[in-house]
Design goal:
This protein is of the alpha+beta class. It contains eight helices and 15 strands. Strand 11, helix 5 and strand 12 form a beta-alpha-beta unit. The mean pLDDT is 90. Bound molecules: 6-O-phosphono-alpha-D-fructofuranose (P6P). 6-O-phosphono-alpha-D-fructofuranose binds next to helix 6.
Length: 341
């Protein structure tokens, strides 16, 4: 029997459920409620990916016609994904509040179970405008603990907390394969869905963002409305800055653009623009989850000035600029930003 097939050397298959149970030991007294909570997310994302994979073959394509709280036309899959996540999560007694990109207000679930200790904030289908052209989309999530002394009739207070207190965050990218990436504050781990058995299998243990990367990622169509130091920084990278010849990659789907940055390194930016002076990405369910993961993987994430995870949110759908990536590119960005102050 050669080395490759010798059972003694075959790597063990670790499912995300096994991994979560292992990680949960970090939370004394978690009593399994945390892993039960995360299983609601993995179940929902398996249902979402099944629809995303079939989007071209069912009548799920196209626009629902309604406008969401963001002022964006809701795609059919947005609605479906949101309903699936709400359904799978609200049956978890440990969850008291849900907040979604698709819902204007925070949702109090179970009519307020006294056992509820967690809030989950999510974007059910980020980048959904790309669905009809078969570009990767994603689900993002952030898990917060109920703040001390906050009652069940103040659902917004459960979610308006800085990203630094997230107890877990992650995303699922529906790309050439479906990959779940999450962290509970003990490193970043990736799981690839094996559709033949319907299980997320550990495929990227302990992800570390490279200290420097080959790519910068920004929508250069808005270049003229970026603050000057952003333009100078991008020109610097393009012109051999950091002694490196950068390539530009921009998918226009945050989860996909960040996933590449996490694995390959480099920098992803969504600066302030004329149409989005506070940036376009939403703090609670886009910037905070990826900033949490970036830092856990050894990277840095700012809003151009301060650490994303230090921002105190004032509203659920608050937007923020974001610059997130490897140490080298982020330290260089800070040099340009500090010169501009
Ligand atoms: P633009 C998708 O709509 C999204 O919210 C993010 O996923 C993505 O990074 C960004 O907007 C793309 O915005 O203005 O470059 O099309």
């Amino acid at each position: 029997m050669n080395e490759k097939t010798d059972p003694a050397v075959i790597e063990p298959i670790i499912t995300v459920q096994q991994h979560i149970l292992q990680e949960q030991k970090r939370f004394p007294g978690a009593s399994g409620e945390f892993s039960w909570l995360l299983s609601g997310i993995t179940m929902a994302t398996k249902m979402i990916q099944a629809k995303v994979r079939m989007a071209g073959l069912t009548d799920i394509l196209g626009e629902w016609g309604t406008i969401n709280v963001q002022g964006e036309v809701q795609q059919n899959l947005d609605i479906y994904s949101n309903e699936v996540l709400v359904h799978c999560l609200k049956v978890r007694e440990s969850i008291g509040v849900l907040a979604s990109e698709e819902n204007e207000q925070a949702i109090l679930v179970h009519g307020g179970s006294e056992n509820a200790n967690y809030a989950v904030v999510f974007d059910p289908l980020d980048g959904s405008s790309n669905i009809d052209v078969n570009v990767s989309v994603g689900t993002t999530f952030s898990i917060l603990r109920r703040p001390d002394g906050v009652s069940l009739d103040e659902p917004e207070k459960w979610v308006l907390q800085p990203g630094s207190v997230q107890i877990a965050a992650g995303y699922v990218v529906y790309g050439s394969s479906t990959i779940l990436v999450y962290s509970v504050g003990n490193g970043v781990h990736g799981f690839t869905l094996d559709p033949s058995i319907g299980a997320f299998i550990l495929s990227h243990p302990d992800i570390k963002m490279p200290e420097q990367g080959p790519y910068y990622s920004v929508n250069e169509a808005y270049r003229d409305s970026f603050p000057t130091h952003y333009r100078n920084y991008i020109d610097h990278l393009r012109n051999g800055g950091l002694n490196h010849k950068y390539s530009s990659r921009y998918i226009g789907s945050m989860v996909a653009d960040f996933h590449r940055t996490l694995l390959k390194g480099g920098v992803f930016l969504y600066p302030p623009t004329e149409s989005n002076s506070e940036g376009k990405l939403r703090l609670l369910y886009e910037a905070n989850p990826i900033a949490f993961l970036a830092e856990q993987a050894g990277g840095i994430a700012t809003d151009g000035t301060r650490r994303v995870l230090d921002i105190q949110p004032n509203s659920i759908h608050q937007r923020t600029p974001i610059v997130v990536g490897s140490q080298a590119e982020m330290i260089e960005f800070e040099r340009f930003a500090s010169e501009a102050r």
